[in-house]
Amino acid sequence: LRFDDGSSDALTRTQSSSPTNDNKGTISFWFKSSFILSGNNQYFFTVFTDANTRIQMFLKTTGSLRLIQKVSASTTVAIETNRLFRDSSAWYHCCVAIDTTQSTSSDRVKLYINGVQETSLASSTYPTQNENTQLTKGTDVSIGGYNNTNDFFNGYLAEVVLIDGQQLDPTSFGEFDSSSPNIWKPIDVSGLTFGTNGFYLDFENSGSLGADVSGNSNNFTVNNLTSIDQSTDTCTNNFATLNPLYHFSGGASFSEGNLKFTTSGNSSVGRGMSTIRPENGKWYVECKIIDVTRFSFGLMNGNETHSSQGGNDTNSVIFGYDGGFFMTGGFTGYLSAPSNNDIVQLALDLDNDLFWIGINDTWGNSATRTEIENGTATNSGSTDIGSQVPINTGAIGIFVEDNSGTGNNVCEMNFGNPTFSISSGNSDANGFGNFEYAPPSGYYSLCTKNLAEFG
Fold first, then answer.
1. What would the DSSP string read from start to end of 163-202?
2. pLDDT in tens, 218-228
3. What pLDDT sits at residue 150?
4. Across the strands, what pairs with 97?
5. Tens digits of per-residue pLDDT, 404-416?
6. Is residue 368 within 8 Å of residue 251, measured between CB atoms?
7. Strand, helix or coil at 307?
8. In the chain, what's the furthest Cα-to-Cα distance?
């Protein structure tokens, strides 16, 4: 499920029943943060009785993870990692396991990331023995915000599970892959004992995103989330997004899971680069234009410089609001000028070092789908730009940018996981992605499962 703080997205419920055990509980969830080094803390969850008694976990603006419990205004738990979680392209599994009956204080609260306990801590305050945990005892549960009032989460959550009455370790929720032992992956959790206040949110029902499938019917109220926020970008298949930490993100803002790019006014310039940069294979991407005024959509090869203007960088090419290519300061016509609400398409063939740009399924230079599928260079964008901007050098980044400072560029990327409504719905040949137009045969959405096979 994709959360956006600008929309105050959250899930909420009231725990009205007495817990199975108010000393023991475990919460497990997978997250991919749209991390930005500014703004507010981002809350994964809060269990709130009142302002003085609550438990909460959040990602700080520095990138560390922090777990806090307050009881009658006194801080009884304060766990913060030294490690920073700034990678906005990565999925992480988080498991917080609590048993306040343990005789050793550090055993009463354990924090695990990707199956490994975090022991290097910036702060480590543990509860007194037999202290109640607000995780199962608190009243108001919020997923994705601080008591559904502020500091909302930006990013993606999957497989959110609360266990009431047990301190479980992460092997109840995941395992290391047998062929790639450094990869931590989810397992089926449906057979766990969830306890009275426990729940399991799998986000599979687009009509009821807060449905608890544990069997307890501890369902959540949906706040500002809709079916378009249901995401196939998950911990088992990671899709490309835009990277807000890229060296020339500049004054651009990133939202909707780092898929919406916005510049506004005369001082807001920047670039959003794809988190996945393939070296091989054939890839299909769409981009919906919201404000075309200074729209630019481009490719950058592995020799990129730190130029703030993609069109002036000899290692890049941009397709712009005029309908042509800009490269090394020059311009060549290619398509009619795009308009607001148009869908710009990219077919990127890195096996033959070719690419094509289309608008609303009309391809530049009257290229045909057959030409694109067969790798016929005649009407490709690569032929149009000649050798000025080679795309056969290193990993290729896909980006949008505004380098003018004289207008706006607002657009939404679709690497196969759209933030906007799709009227038709087309996937690639592997069944991944959701696109407005059918990808040419042999072209795939930019996700890790496809990358492992073709990239």
1. EES----GGGTEEE-SSSTT-EEE---TTS---TT-EEE-
2. 999 999 999 99
3. 79
4. 26, 110
5. 767 899 999 999 9
6. no
7. coil
8. 74
Read off the tokens for 432. Answer: 């991944």
Sign of CA dihedral 230, 234, 237, 240: positive
Q: Comparing C-alpha atoms, which of 71, 79, 69, 111 is closest to residue 94?
A: 111
Q: Is 206 exposed, middle or buried (0-12, 13-18, 19+ CB in 10 A)?
A: exposed
> What span, in angstroms and rounded, lies between the C-alpha atoms of 89 and 257?
10
Name the residue among 454, 108, 412 with its Cα closest to residue 286. 412
Question: Cα–Cα–Cα angle for 195, 198, 202, nearest 5°?
Answer: 135
Angle at 439 between CA 228 and CA 374, to 5 degrees: 170
Beta bridge partners of 155: 3, 33
| Residues 409 and 319 sit within 8 Å (Cβ to Cβ) | no
Give me the phi and psi of 5, to 5 degrees please.
-70, -30
Task: State how far the Cα of 304 lies from the Cα of 168, in Å rounded to an integer.
Answer: 47
Residues 240/273, Cβ–Cβ less than 8 Å: no
Backbone angles phi, psi at 109, to 5 degrees: -135, 120
pLDDT in tens, 99-140: 999 999 999 999 999 999 999 999 999 999 999 999 999 999
Burial class for 308, CB neighbours closer than 10 Å (0-12, 13-18, 19+)? middle
- pLDDT (0 to 100) of residue 387: 57
Q: Over the stretch 150-194, which tens digit does the pLDDT of each residue have?
A: 789 999 999 999 999 999 999 999 999 998 888 999 999 999 999
At residue 383, the pLDDT reads 86
Tokens of 193: 């004992």
Q: What is the DSSP letter of 447?
A: B
